[in-house]
Amino acid sequence: xxxxxxxxxxxxxxxxxxxxxxxxxxxxxxxxxxxxxxxxxxxxxxxxxxxxxxxxxxxxxxxxxxxxxxxxxxxxxxxxxxxxxxxxxxxxxxxxxxxxxxxxxxxxxxxxxxxxxxxxxxxxxxxxxxxxxxxxxxxxxxxxxxxxxxxxxxxxxxxxxxxxxxxxxxxxxxxxxxxxxxxxxxxxxxxxxx
Length: 194
Ligand SMILES: [Zn+2]
Ligand SMILES: [Zn+2]
Description:
- This protein is α+β, with helices and mostly antiparallel strands.
- It contains four helices and eleven strands.
- The protein has a four-stranded antiparallel beta sheet with strand order 1-2-3-4, with no helix packed on it. Strands 6-5-9 form a three-stranded antiparallel beta sheet, with no helix packed on it. A two-stranded antiparallel ribbon has the order 7-8.
- A hairpin with a 6-residue loop joins strand 7 (86-89) and strand 8 (96-99).
- Helix 1 packs antiparallel against helix 4.
- The chain is elongated.
- One zinc ion binds at residues 20, 22-23, 25, 27, 42, 44-45, 47.
């Protein structure tokens, strides 16, 4: 009798396994949907980070000098605190003014410059990912990996009800001709997680 696919895990949306920036092993990001509560923990090297550390402010000033009408532009990023008034000089007439800047909050994540898939808060690359015939194959975390394995290895893949995980899988993962290769990668990933 063929094994019918049945969903086993459902709570894998909230965490992501990423490559630890410190030791290169797997680190766990929790609360990927909310940077304020997000945390990163590595059980191999004890690195800890919180999403709050990524919050920075940018201050902008754009005005015409009240004395000589010369345009004054000021921009400063990477501020940990919201700045109050800033003193800006005019390049043209040497007057200076106390101005309240416009403030923009932003997240300064890491690692986004490389072309891989990253966690949405810290920006570290997913631990389970590799190229599969020119397409990026990845698992967000261990539960996601096991769920894909269970789906790909089952003979009967009819879905008794709507399953977001399976419906979202790219076609190459579901194709019968790729089945063996996909299972092999999943097995390799499972072995790499210690
Ligand atoms: Zn580490
Ligand atoms: Zn001026």
